[in-house]
Amino acid sequence: MPVIKNSQQCYEILKSVYDKDNIERLESCVLLLLNKANKYMGWVKISTGGMSGTVIDQRVIFQIVLRFNAHGIILSNNHPSGNTSPSEVDKTITRNLKSSSQILDIIFNDHIIYTTDGYYSFADEGMIL
Q1: Does residue 126 lie within any of the structural domains?
Q2: 28-34, strands of its sheet edge to edge
Q3: Cβ(111)–Cβ(128) below 8 Å
Q4: Which has the closest alpha carbon to 111: 69, 67, 61?
Q5: What is the band of 122 on the pLDDT scale with cuts at 50, 70, 90?
Q6: CATH code (residue 28)
Q7: Residue 2, domain member (yes or no)
Q8: 26-62, pLDDT tens digit by residue?
Q9: Across-strand partners of 111?
Q10: Residue 26 burial (CB < 10 Å; 0-12/13-18/19+)?
């Protein structure tokens, strides 16, 4: 299990997670699970939607986190358009998950927007405080 130290490592893991045939057609949400030492435990697909969005239900996310006894999480969703800029919905989800994770004493490490040509890390941009 690798220790996750930065967003580039997350991006490399996500390259093997996202469906290569649909990455530029359908938006999906994936959750990376980490233990207390920030070791990567695995991933779970949360949802798959359409061309311009997918449902990211934080109740589903925290049900999975608690079931796997994860200590930390990294949320990711792809943008089929190839645009790495976060939408207002992405920003709202990030704020909500950060707030909810604090109540449950779970570390919300990052939210990564994935595209085949690059990524956006909320943590790298100071958007997760």
Answers
A1: no
A2: 40-48, 28-34, 72-78, 107-115, 118-121
A3: yes
A4: 61
A5: very high
A6: 3.40.140.10
A7: no
A8: 999 999 999 999 999 999 999 988 888 899 999 999 9
A9: 75
A10: middle
Residue 69 lies in a domain: yes
Query: What type of residue is 33?
Result: L
CA 120, CA 59: separation in Å to the nearest integer? 24
Q: 68-115: per-residue pLDDT in tens?
A: 999 999 999 999 999 999 999 999 999 999 999 999 999 999 999 999
Which range marks the domain in which residue 11 is found? 7-46+58-121
Residue 34, strand partner residues? 40, 72
Rounded Cα–Cα distance for residues 121 and 4 (Å): 14
Local confidence band at 120 (pLDDT 50, 70, 90 cut-offs): very high
Query: Residue 19 has what pLDDT?
Result: 80
Distance CA 16, CA 13 (A): 6
CA distance 98 to 96: 5
Number of domains in the chain: 1
Contacts of 8 (CB under 8 A, 6+ apart): none
Residue 51 inside a domain? The answer is no
